[in-house]
Amino acid sequence: MKQLLKNREAQLALVILSLLAMIGAIIPDFLAISNLLGVYTDTSILIILALGQMLVIITRCIDLSIAANVALTGMVVATINSLYPDFPVPVIILIGAGFGTLLGMLNGWLVWKMKIPSIVVTLGTMAIFRGAVFLISKGAWINAHQMSATFLEIPRYVFLGLPILGWCSVIVIAAMYYFTRHRQLGRKIYAAGNSPTAAYYIGVDVGKKQFIAFTISGLLAGIASYLWISRYAVAYVDIANGFEMLVIASCVIGGVSIAGGTGTVIGCVLGALFLGIINNALPVIGISPFWQMAISGSVIILAVIANSRSERKVGRIILRKAVQNAS
Amino acid sequence: MKLTTIIKTTLIATSIMASTFAQAADMRIGLVVKAQGIGFFEAAYKGAQEASAEIEDNIEIIYTGPVTPTAEGQIEIINSLISQKVDAIVVSANDPDALVPILKRAQQRGIKVVSFDSGVATAGRQIHLNPSSNELIGRMNIELAATSLEAAKSEKGDIAILSASPTATNQNIWIGEMEKALPEFPQLTLVATVYGDDLADKSYRETQGLVKTYPNLKVIVAPTTVGILAAAQAITDMKKTGEVFVTGLGLPSELAGHVESGAVNSFAIWNPIDLGYAATHIAYNLIQDTASETEVEMGRMGVAQLDAEGNAAMSSPFVYDISNVAEFAKIF
């Protein structure tokens, strides 16, 4: 099974490489190292959020409120910065991370203790968070000149050729890779999603693992919120509106099964990069916006078809093995 | 000699009569806004006071509005204005239909009703004053592009439009009007129209795409507030300030920073002071019965043409640049 998953990632990597080759044939400049680094930096926020979403999806849940979390935490972060420009930015980032975590814990708690399906919980909190953004801001925008220079410059600071924004996602990828591959808790999250019944019998509290997945998703949304606000230098009610769909699409394209239990950090990152490359290349290729929408949509459906086909095989193999082992 | 004396005396006599008459009449105009404490409407009030000071008759402006922007609150306020027997009501409605019954009642009592900014359905008012018209907005955007081209120190150059979503009606109408005005500006070549969907990240990416694709691009016109901000930020981040200028429609409070950084040379939006001023003049003309079916005078803003439904357009959007953006950023 591991072999197969590895193949899948290799397949996706091949698709991305051929996509780059196709774009490069039309616009050679797109393949310049500086441009590719720019595309990676642009996709960083998507990667960070997709990795949080991946954990949640692995536990058979879904976090629709992830973009609304970015919006609410982002507005909190921006408000603090605009009201107290001298307040140290690292502390603001910590506050943002903490606040995002709290919002994630709220989702997780409702799923774990109230036993409400996650799609209902996060649909509700999505609306609540968006509403709260309006309550905090009273509909007003916070703009570039109301933010402090340090607040705006940190993610833009270039270190070893890559802006801090890009490094943030590198760190998150490394941390998540270690967490999902080498930590017991990370492995238990997979177990809880792969087969909740089996996980229960070996002493894994499935609900608690879901709570933890939502908490981590909230933490990453909190970090991403600061990066988002400072990158686009504006905070308003509709920040990252609809972005949750792009985040979920990244996971799906990356081979994270909506049914839970499967999905890897590398696959998820490749999924996000795939969308990031398409989003960055389409404006340069200059095709009609209606085609752009159709292309993005078709790609997602194709990825889901590829997924469900490979999953079906995996499912059968597991079942047979399990049956064989049992008998 | 005799004739001039007679004329002089009559003139003085009539002017005295007129002024005493005005004192006795003591016109009152109720200015009902969406909610209290909004800078935009306080600026409109400033304009209304300017108009009342200008008009010879003694006009009292009653500036009022609910605490929260609700139609219910406005209905209560309009009710009390009716019982105070004001001469005219100038209103920016929280709901175009909910205010119609109460405003009809006001009109039955002889009170003139003008809506501005956010309109009331035709039955509820005599004239609605739009800040501008689609044609004027489209033309203004192209004029701004020409100004920005000069700021980029170029005689000829490419321009691109960054819109909201490809299905946004008002945006598409404005783009159509821009294209109509374009032939009069031979120095401008429109090379692309892209869509940022009013999302900061997509608008940002589209701007990057434009700059990469069109090396001769000098101006990006974004007639949408999210788009103009995201484009200005993208230009700043790409270190293209001074080479590529962003312009279009936006609010001074949102764009002040980008005007200072140089990513935006100038931009436009209606001026709330002018809007309050013009609406007050229209109300005054309705009271005086000096407005015709097709035209109404607005003081220094000129004469507005009325369509069959009593809609008027005030003027071209007002241009903001480094000289005035800081002052207006405090207002809205």
UniProtKB/TrEMBL annotation, chain A:
It is a multi-pass membrane protein. The chain crosses the membrane at residues 12-33, 39-59, 66-84, 90-112, 119-137, 157-179, 211-229, 263-282, 288-306. GO terms for cellular component: plasma membrane. Keywords: Cell membrane, Membrane, Transmembrane, Transmembrane helix. Its main location: membrane. Pfam families: BPD_transp_2. It is found in: Cell inner membrane. It comes from the Bacteria. GO terms for molecular function: transmembrane transporter activity. Belongs to the binding-protein-dependent transport system permease family. AraH/RbsC subfamily. PANTHER family: ABC TRANSPORTER PERMEASE PROTEIN YPHD-RELATED-RELATED, RIBOSE IMPORT PERMEASE PROTEIN RBSC. This is ABC transporter permease. The lineage of its organism: Bacteria, Pseudomonadati, Pseudomonadota, Gammaproteobacteria, Alteromonadales.
Automatic annotation (TrEMBL), chain B:
Keywords: Signal. GO terms for cellular component: outer membrane-bounded periplasmic space. GO terms for biological process: rhamnose transmembrane transport. InterPro entries: Bact_Solute-Bind_Prot2 (IPR050555), Peripla_BP_I (IPR028082), RhaS (IPR013459), SBP_2_dom (IPR025997). The keyword Signal applies. It is found in: Periplasm. Pfam families: Peripla_BP_4. GO terms for molecular function: carbohydrate binding. SUPFAM superfamilies: Periplasmic binding protein-like I. Its main location: periplasm. Residues 1-24 form the signal peptide. Residues 29-288 form the Periplasmic binding protein domain. Belongs to the bacterial solute-binding protein 2 family. This is Rhamnose ABC transporter substrate-binding protein. It comes from Alginatibacterium sediminis.
